[in-house]
Amino acid sequence: MGHLYSRRDFLGLGAAAAGASLAAPGVFLDPLPLAAMPQGTAASDRVRFGMVGVGMQGNGLLARAIQLPGVECAAACDLYDGRHALAQEIVNSTLPVTRHYKDLLDNKEIDCIIAAVPDHWHKQVVVDAVSAGKDIYCEKPMSHTPADGLEMVAAEKKSERIVQIGSQRVSSALLTKARELVRDGAVGDLMMVEAVLGRNDPNGAWEYPPPPDLSPQNLDWDTWQGNVPKRAFDPNLFARWRCWKEYGTGVAGDLLVHLISGMLYVLSISEPPRRAMAAGGILRWNDGRNMPDVHNTIFEYGKIPVVMRLNLGTEIPESYRFMGSKGLLDISSEQLILTPQSGKDEAPSWYANSFPRPLREAYAKNWHEQHDPALGHEPIRQASIFRSVDYNEVKPHLWNFFQAVKTRQPVVENAVFGHNAALACHMANESYFRHSAVYWDEHSKMIKS
């Protein structure tokens, strides 16, 4: 009696004819050319910016921006006086500081603004800046609500000023290479996209320590709250605003927006998802917050399902996986691996196990005659590996903005792109709170169930 073929035999896992998948030596991708930046800049050719918000994100942006050649900070603004001292520590002791950002907009010596303020203040600062004739770099997510985003897009268009949103993945050499590979068909027809990011500590869950001296005397608490329902002074609200939907956009606006922005850039698209369905909850950090700490969402972009997983209760390295008919594109913060797939049968079908022996053996013999490569010409599928600096690097993104301010060339992440990325986050939040799938209604410009 003839032996039945195992699934391993039919897959040809032990046969040279199936070919091997080998890793190639890595290629290092030079990040945006800090070496190519001009090191000497005439005073008349310098860009002078005003800093609005010198908090956790703002102090880092300020420190990095002044390291770029030809870039100077002319003044800084914050509602907390302690950050006036911080700005002067970073720049110099004579740096002009204020609580009123409109002082910076009225300053004719300031060319542009960098804004790193809570999400509920983004729209007003951006609209006021471009209306005053200032270009602006605004931290992500661009908007606190879809309506805010629409107003910001309209203000950018009307003013013809430059708006750059601060999701720096889109200035990454690594994601630029991924974009080229997808555009050139390296993964074939796209089937699905996955991305994941997780943290597992109080700091990662925004349980930040408020400044010990914070008080209504050194903080303009009423202005900080903006137009949301007023609450009594609370240092935790000031430091941990991302936890509450009144001020922030939760894990969607903090982390998901990076994953969405990077994905849109790699796929060379700028559009909202057709549909979103989210699930999650406050599973770890039940500290009074009203935004989920676990938030998973399935989106539809055209016909393509996109699965995004965010988790503040388990540390998970940030990564993307683009799945196509010709293989996998796996991206981590410093490495990209393209693993090709043939998409073809590489061994006789294991379904032939259900044939009687004469038919099974004849089928296998015929298959091998038609498909086996000539000896010495077996295909070798080689994975391509590219490495670069961490795609979280901020300097190239800031440099892109300052160059655009000087040359008036388009930025990589304008208000339209920022609005579309933020819409995905708003849809993820709306789906979570409504307990149902939602979609973006282009006619009414609203999220609907």
Can you tell me about this structure?
- The protein is built from 13 helices and 18 strands.
- It is an alpha/beta fold and 449 residues long.
- It is elongated and about 90 Å long.
- Helix content is 31%, strand content 23%.
- The termini are far apart.
- Helix 10 packs across helix 13.
- The chain has a domain of 44 residues.
- Strands 1, 2, 9, 10, 11, 12, 13, 14, 15, 16, 17 and 18 form a 12-stranded mixed sheet that branches.
Distance between the termini: 62 Å
Strand content: 15-25%
**How many DSSP H or I helices?**
13
What class, by secondary structure content?
alpha/beta
How would you describe the shape? elongated
Defining key terms:
six-stranded parallel sheet; elongated; 13 helices; 23% strand; twelve-stranded mixed sheet; single chain; 449 residues; disordered N terminus; alpha/beta
Summarize the structure in short.
It is built from 13 helices and 18 strands. It is an alpha/beta fold and 449 residues long.
Topology:
Elements: H1 7-11, E1 20-23, E2 27-28, E3 47-52, H2 56-65, E4 71-77, H3 82-90, E5 97-98, H4 101-105, E6 112-115, H5 122-131, E7 135-139, H6 146-159, E8 163-166, H7 173-183, E9 190-198, H8 221-225, H9 235-239, H10 250-266, E10 275-281, E11 294-301, E12 304-311, E13 316-324, E14 327-332, E15 335-340, H11 357-371, E16 380-387, H12 395-407, H13 415-434, E17 438-441, E18 446-448
Parallel strand pairs: 1-16, 2-16, 3-4, 3-6, 4-5, 6-7, 7-8, 9-12
Antiparallel strand pairs: 9-13, 10-11, 10-17, 11-12, 13-14, 14-15, 15-16, 17-18
